[in-house]
Design goal:
This protein is of the alpha/beta class. Strands 1, 2, 3, 4, 5, 6 and 7 form a seven-stranded mixed sheet that branches. A hairpin with a 5-residue loop joins strand 1 and strand 2. Helix 2 packs parallel to helix 3. The chain is globular and about 45 Å long.
């Protein structure tokens, strides 16, 4: 049997209402066990900052560009994810060293798949440093580099949820999929590597 890993998915969606956090245990193939999930809302002031980030991103032409103001918003977003992870672990009696990886989607501020460009703000290395948990991030952009469309999509997980969940339970789906947002059939797994604690992986 393949090794069972514990992953926490973090999703901050286009609604900009907060962070969804969800845990799964999986072998990355056929076995998926859903764990707890929770939401951490954003306050109105920060939602305003995220809307400002959309404006700042419009003229950008490269995924790693970060004008000063956008970088400040990115750091604030990252710190809020640190707080969300910490609260999640405390609420459900979990330890950081019992989590193999965080799937950090970040906040999409620009998505132009026809141009091969998608930008999600969020500092993966900083999240890894502050939580002590390995982080996979910048996944949508990496998917596009390898021929995908940067979709928030993971076929095994979504199929499992459709077949085994009530509509109420599917509330955690978007967060779970943040652990592996790849686009079939053209997605490649290059860049998704095993890591040591506190390491961030693109």
């Amino acid at each position: 049997m393949d090794v069972i890993r514990t992953a926490i998915g973090l999703m901050s969606g286009t609604s900009m209402d907060g962070i969804d956090v969800a845990l799964i245990r999986t072998d990355g193939r056929g076995f998926i066990e859903r764990g707890p999930f929770m939401g951490v809302p954003y306050d109105a002031d920060f939602r305003g900052q995220l809307k400002r980030a959309l404006e700042l991103a419009r003229p950008l032409s490269a995924r790693n560009e970060r004008p000063a103001e956008l970088r400040e918003i990115e750091l604030e977003l990252t710190l809020r994810h640190v707080i969300a992870v910490t609260a999640f672990l405390e609420r459900f009696g979990l330890l950081a060293d019992g989590v193999d990886v965080l799937g950090f989607h970040g906040q999409t501020v620009l998505h132009r798949p026809d141009e091969g460009l998608t930008i999600q703000i969020g500092d993966g290395p900083e999240l890894a440093r502050r939580t002590g948990i390995p982080v996979v991030y910048d996944m949508r952009a990496n998917d596009m580099v390898h021929g995908g469309q940067g979709r928030r999509w993971c076929r095994p997980i979504m199929q499992h949820l459709r077949e085994n969940s009530s509509s109420r339970d599917r509330r955690s789906a978007s967060s779970i999929s943040a652990a592996s947002p790849i686009s079939p059939p053209s997605a490649r797994m290059a860049g998704y590597r095993p890591s040591t604690a506190g390491r961030a992986i693109r």
